[in-house]
Amino acid sequence: MTNAYSLDGILVFGLLLICTCAYLKKVPRINSWLLSEKKGVWGVFYKAAIIGTRLHIAVAISCLTMAFYIVFLK
């Protein structure tokens, strides 16, 4: 179980947020509802979706690396 207050827990949370927002950006109804705000608290989801779509190769490699670390090394 990954602890939420450790560095790897924060990295897992960030990667999951980025991957989820990038996926939800492809769904038209959710894109207009959740990702329409570009400022404020809701802007975090928009910015995470942009990071996930523009850096999709780096995010995918980070997800695979983190999965390998959690499954085999931790």
Notes on the structure:
- With 74 residues, the chain is mostly helical.
- The protein is 74% helix and 0% strand.
- It contains 4 helices and no strands.
- The chain has helices at residues 7-24, 28-34, 43-54, 56-73.
- Helix 1 crosses helix 3 and helix 1 (7-24) packs across helix 4 (56-73).
- The longest helix has 18 residues, at 7-24.
- The protein is elongated, with a radius of gyration of 14 Å.
Fold blueprint:
Blueprint: H1 7-24, H2 28-34, H3 43-54, H4 56-73
Summarize the structure.
With 74 residues, this protein is mainly α. It has four helices and no strands. InterPro entries: Kish-B, Ksh1.
Features:
74 residues; mainly alpha
Low-confidence stretches: none
What kind of sheet is the major sheet? none
| Overall helicity | over 70%
What is the tally of helical segments?
4
Q: What is the helix/strand order? A: HHHH
- Measured by DSSP, the beta-strand proportion falls in under 5%
Structural class: mainly alpha
Indicate the overall shape.
elongated
- How many runs of DSSP E, i.e. beta strands? 0
